[in-house]
Amino acid sequence: MQRLIKVWLVFALFLSLAYAQPHPDTLWTYEYPNSGLDQPWSVGAGVDSGYIVAGCLSCFSSSQVGCVIRLTPNGDTLWTARLDSVFLFSTVRSDSSYAVAGFIYAPSGRSHDAFLALISDNGTVLWSRAYGGNLLDRAKGITRLTDDGYILAGYSRSFSTDSSMQAYVIRTESNGDTLWTRTYSESAYTDLRQVIEASDGGYIGLGTTGINAADTRYWVVKLDNSGQIQWTRTYGTVASEIATGIVLAEDNGYVICGWLNLPGDANNQIYLVRINQNGDTLWSRLYGDIGIQEVNSSQIISTTNGYAILGTLFSSGQSGSFYLLATDLVGDTLWSCSYHRNGEYGTAACQTTRGSFVLVGTTSAGVENNSAIYAMETGPVQFADAGRPRRDMSKPEKTGLSAFPNPFNQTTAITFYVEDEFKTKIALYDTSGREVRILADKIFERGEHMLIFDGRNLPSGLYLLRLESESLSLSQKLLLLR
User: Fold this and answer.
1) Residue among 118, 219, 119, 220 at smallest CA distance from 172
2) Which domain holds residue 330?
3) What confidence score (pLDDT) does residue 420 get?
């Protein structure tokens, strides 16, 4: 039995004094303790009105069941569809029906096959397809294309010579028949989270690559319309990065979202990277107080005047809560808020036609403290940026030398811009002018770079960070607090 839960929400709000933005109110919240779904992974607009949620029951087990729930505009359940042995990662609306993607346990002792199905607006499965080889193949993202076909993104172990993980792309017609499939390897561990259409008629894919699952970077691959690679790029620092979403920007470039884990810090921070059509970095941003709170990003949504990012906030002494961050078009924070209750984990979001957001995830504070699906709708969200100077997005942002957070108590992220490919030295000095640490001393490529400075072995106090090259000399004060 569904029950409407009316709660008072506590907002953690970080506002720019010069350009303060109001946070969204809450229109409704719902728990679904008996929905048959224990992990939602995707939410989207329903046909005509309402919403569609896809996920699974008993996820990552042989008894898992894919579930699709149709909601009214107020969060009431219209119907639930189930698909045996299926894990559903994502869903997209297709005219008067819904395409869902994930993976299915394969027959004959094989592992998993990538999976695609079309479900009508009354919950009937119209058709389903499986794709893959003899080992593990999974689809994680789905995009409906302008020709009404689909492109699935995921990973595969079936087609590599050593069973290593490869990025996997499946291009289908509108009925799910295969047009082509491709696998790509950047390193021993490569997967794709999402592929979207590019402005030139090709595709752009976002994933993660690294030597293993614990040491990864953002990975972007540009494909032509037949799936052939045009270029690839990796983005990241000495941290480990996990990519979760990519959206088209106003100049046909892209904004990449995910999170990173800094060395020596158990917490994560949201990591946003803005690139142009050629994959060059224009700017990057970190969000969250390093060493104080953990923020995982699940999804990024592009709006007319900025970006909305859904995640989960783990503050000191508290269990998880839904977290919503709004930025302008250059990544500056407009506001952020967390919806504190008890044990929520945000996994997906969509924007409504009235400018609000529907957030879904799980809660550990359901009926009798059992896990349940949790959903809510915010009030209309404002991304107004009146009075803000618009930056030239065709060129990389010349940020100079900066550190975030500053002051800091363990680690801080140092961002700097290199105009020319000269040897660049970045060093730390104490107040007497003594050099206490060399962070870098090498030739950097032109563009923006990031280093993570770990100050745990240094005493508290004021330090001077200095960047020096043949063409540039910059300094920045750093305050280390214990």
Assistant:
1) 118
2) 3-378
3) 76
